[in-house]
Amino acid sequence: MAITRDYKTTITQCVESNPAFAKALLDEAMSLFLNGEPDVARLVLRDLVNATVGFETMAIKINKPSKSLHRMLSAKGNPTMDNLTKIVGVLKAQLNVTINVNTTVCNS
Asked: Which pLDDT tens digit goes with each residue over 31-59?
């Protein structure tokens, strides 16, 4: 019988022990949003919120009910750009990172 662990616990442990992993999750979420995969991006953000500030603290910081925050960051959630900006802002501050977007110009 294989020994398994809850993925939420694993992600939380990785985030707590490796700040680069947490930053990579935020980077991945932003890349997913920009590349047209918002449903997956919201789930990555949900995991990152769980592993860092927690939903109750995040709800207080962005002045939204915790239940609304849970719905926003579900696979079928539909957060406004204002709410996403607030969530990402709190995560950026928590992780002490800045976000830079690099673009590639294609000459056709």
From this structure: 999 899 999 999 999 999 999 999 999 99
What are the pLDDT digits (tens) for 19-34? Answer: 899 999 999 999 999 8
Contact 55, 66 (CB under 8 A): yes
Residue 61 burial by Cβ neighbours in a 10 Å radius (0-12, 13-18, 19+): middle
- Is the distance from CB of 37 to CB of 28 less than 8 angstroms? no
Annotate 74-96 with b (16+ C-beta within 10 A) or e (fewer): eeebebeeebbebbbebbeebbe
> Which one, of 40, 35, 49, 50, lies nearest residue 86 by Cα?
49
Q: Residue 55 corresponds to which tokens in the numbers above?
A: 């939903």
